[in-house]
Amino acid sequence: MSTERRRNAGGRRRASGPADGARGNGGRRRAQGPAGDERSAGRRRPPADDNGGFWDEGGRGAAAAGAGGAAGGGRRRPPAGDDGFWDDERPRRRSEGGDRDRGRSSGARSEAGPRSGGRRRAAPERGRRAAAAHGARSEGRGGGRRRAGGDDPDEYDDRGPVKRFFAKAWKPALITCALMFVAGVAVLGIAYANTPDPRTLDQQDSAQIAATTIKYENGSEAVTTGELNRVIVQRENIPQSVVNGVLAAEQRNFYEEPGISISGTMRAVLTAGAAGGGSTITQQMSRNYYDTLSQERSYTRKLREILISIKAGQTMHPDEILEKYLNTIYFGRQAYGVQAAAQAYFGKDVSELNDAEGAFIGAIIQQPGNFENVEGNKAMEDVLRERWDYVRDGLVTMHEENPDLGLPASEADKLEFPETIPYGTGDEIEGQEGYIRDAVINELQTRYDLSPNQIATAGYTVETSLDPKLMTAAEEAFAQTLPDMPPETVQGLAAVVPQTGEIRAFYGGTDFTQDPNNSLTLRAQAGSAFKPYVLAAGLEQNISLRSEFNGDSPQEFPGVGEPIQNDSNKDWGQVDLVESTAHSVNTSFVQLAIEVGPPAVVDIAKAAGIREEQFETAEMGPNIALGTYQVTALDQAAGFATFANGGVHMPQHMITKVTNANGEEIQPNDAQQLEEGTPAFSEETAIDATYAMTQVVENGGGDAAALPDGRPVAGKTGTSNSAKSAWFVGYTPQLATAVGLSRDDGEALVIPGVNDVYGGTTSAKIWRAFMAEAMKGQEVEEFADPVWKGEEGRYGPTPEPSITPSEEPSETASETPSTTPSQSPTQSPPTTPPTDDDDCDGLPWECEDEQDTGSPEPPGPPDGDPDDTGEPPGWFRRFGSSGD
Question: Where is the composition biased (Low complexity) (predicted)?
């Protein structure tokens, strides 16, 4: 039965009224309207029925009980003898079968007039909502009527597609998620059940531990690192001062959370166990103690570590975990375990350490390799002191939460940073072997991503490019050339193979226990040894070696606060770039730096091999040509090796191969760069720059570097202001070497027996002594002839113009360089903007975003050939560089 028929059928509950039963006067109320008897009370009259069946006296139920009514609750018939009308106006069809014909389709009813039976249609807009409201069966009908809420072809679902989808999909999705959760829990449960009891692994902790062996280029052993200096101590012999210091540094809530840290573990899982994962002491102990856990960074290893740590936290007492941890952790100075650390740093038994020393032991756990020897390294010492202060504050925090741990604030405030004994625990770190060990460890960490604990315990074999004979030659070159070097002098040497980037030898100082690794880590101003990068930038912008610049002294330049002077304040007149390089003419090179722009010089230097962090040591400006940036000996050796290799930079490195304990080779993270190299500048630029640098040795201030066998040498001297640093950096086709001298206190160099300390008189001699030994037995190779790349031109104002200027010169100087050479110049115009340019401040590179300041065409040819007088320069030092 359709919804409409059910709406008009008897015995139904109205949309918002009471169910069947008492309905007032028996009238049917329309949807949201008055009762039927109220609507037609004035025109209806009760039927003249002998049975007395009136609408207002019992409704349909009463009529059904009368004679002639339908059986079983059907709709009652009209009263016998009725004239067939409910009233005088509406006819009513009599039912011939006792019940209304229910086979009639609702669709056949008239749309225009009222249906028989005297009841109006319900409002059509009620639709399904009214049908739902009248869904109850009439009690006055026999069975067989459908509920209003039943399926009907006329009904439809008016919800959107997304709601219909989720109405059907949420149950399967919920079931699927529940099954996945149950499966995951089951897998973890099985994995946890199969995790061995950590106490059964006690005998496996030292089975695979081995030292790392470092070998020279010829296969001989140079040094070993990681030989375990360990003395096992029981928990009762470890004082509370050390326990407090370690917990304050590593995990202050250890006794409340001995297993794993939920937040730290989630962080570690998301990073696959990368640094910063937040491992607890139990996790660190498990990773270092049980050989079932490797040091690889992977999810599976992290999961095994977590499961073992959970089981350890549940089955082992916290003091037992702490004992194993303190006996296995690495503390630097080749000390494994807290007992060895106490001896290495304080020369006493661990049981004798006080609170300040215990806090120190905890502080160095974070960076044992960096904190093991901070003498002479103020920056690292400051970091260590900050870490110690952090641990001391942690002692107070722990005590506030648990009176049995830590120290009261009154006692903690009295602690003072402890004094350690000098670094020197054995023959291994004495002499050059100590420098080799630290240099290799640093490279294993940066290029192979190995941790200090892996290096010390995993049994790696490291092959290097270091030549033991050249290592000895480097040490002897300093000792024999400058035998009375003051102890505060910083000495550095590094030799790099241009074609591979391999470090063949280096020298860091006389005593590793006293001096940091000077040649690879400490920096000093480059001085004029930085000028080849300015020269390369000019050649890349097609400024030929034959181009001339004003070499007079002094001169003022835009962007430079003080006038620039040459060595001895000498005037060189018009000088080309070959002579400028040979005699290190400051004024011409500052003008060249302005022409190409300091950013271009920085880009060339970085590409050649100068590490990017070195350019944070000074501000960028035209005086970049004078070497204001600080560099290391390794930086300079790698940078000049790029010139020797035709403009292709090979990453500098000393490790050539690493294999693990199983003989498997480990690949570095820069394998592709080592294979292909990185182009820094063109081969033509490298050839011409090399030619100019050969003149430094043959006709300039670096003649002290000439080798005894007469083979060609290219190089550059460098002396910073007031002789605070002295350099010579040079190369043959087979090897590039840098030698640098400076002081760790920043004062001027003072060397007994040497009246004037310059790169050409000190560092050049050390360079010659080393390279003479390094080139023994090597084939003499020649450099390529110059190609004279670029266009010849004259830059800067001419000191003495040869032709009288025009009677009516232009009143306003051009703001940008001329792009077409003048055929008959009367005076070479400046190629830089005037200094009163408000937008560019007289510096063309400042306006790169506003105008095209590309490589200017030279304004005219030089008047003659370069004048190579061969006169050695003096040593007057003015601004940043002495000009040597």
Answer: 105-114, 801-826
Name the residue range of residue 300's domain: 228-412
**Same domain? 255 vs 363:** yes
pLDDT digits (tens, 9 = 90+) for 498-518: 999 999 999 988 777 677 666
Neighbours of 499 (CB within 10 A): 15
DSSP per residue, 727-782: EEEEE-SS-EEEEEEEETTSPPP--TT-SS--IIIIIHHHHHHHHHHHTTTPPP-P
Whose CA is closest to 536, among 650, 699, 693, 651?
693
Give the total number of structural domains in the chain: 3
Question: What Å distances lie between residue 317 and 249, 251, 255, CA to CA?
Answer: 21, 16, 9
Do 74 and 165 share a structural domain? no
Rounded distance between C-alpha atoms, residue 470 and residue 473, angstroms: 5
Tell me how crowded residue 165 is: count the other CB atoms within 10 A of its CB: 11
Residues 267 and 393 in one domain: yes
What are the percentages of helix, strand and coil residues in the chain, rounded to 5? 40, 10, 50
- Within 8 A by CB and 6+ apart from 158, the residues are none
With residue 196 as reference, give the H or E element that holds it: none
DSSP 141: S
The SS3 call for residue 543 is strand
Pairing of strands 655-659, 648-649: unpaired
Q: Are 779 and 729 within 8 A, CB to CB?
A: no
What's the burial of 53, exposed, middle or buried (CB within 10 Å: 0-12/13-18/19+)?
A: buried
Residue 122 inside a domain? The answer is: yes
In three-state secondary structure terms, 75 is coil
Measured between alpha carbons, how far is 643 from 577 in angstroms, rounded to an integer? 17
Rg (CA), the chain: 48
- One-letter amino acid for residue 115 of the chain: R
Q: Please check whether residue 270 is in contact with residue 376, taking contact to mean a CB–CB distance below 8 angstroms.
A: no
Select from 123, 142, 150 the least CA-distant residue to 11: 142
The three-state secondary structure class of 523 is: coil
Distance of alpha carbon 71 from alpha carbon 141, whole angstroms: 9
What is the CA 78 to chain-centroid distance, rounded? Answer: 94
Nearest to 876 by CA among 564, 647, 447: 564
Q: Determine, yes or no, domain membership for 578.
A: no
The three state secondary structure string of 38-53 is: HHCCCCCCCCCCCCCC
- 740 neighbors 758 (Cβ within 8 angstroms): no
DSSP E strands in 556-699: the ranges are 574-576, 630-631, 648-649, 655-659, 678-679
CB 539 within 8 A of CB 689: yes
C-alpha–C-alpha distance, residues 57 and 46, integer Å: 10
pLDDT tens digits, 121-155: 444 444 444 444 444 444 444 444 444 444 555 55
**Can you tell me the distance from the alpha carbon of 136 to that of 233, in angstroms, rounded to the nearest whole number?**
86
pLDDT band at 110 (very low <50, low <70, confident <90, very high): very low
287 and 407 in one domain?
yes
Which among 536, 557, 599 has a CA at the least distance from the CA of 846?
599
Q: Is residue 348 within 8 Å of 342, Cβ to Cβ?
A: yes
Residue 32: DSSP 8-state: T
State pLDDT tens for residues 287-306.
766 655 554 555 665 666 67
Cβ–Cβ < 8 Å for 222, 464: yes
Q: How far apart are CA 12 and CA 26, in angstroms?
A: 12
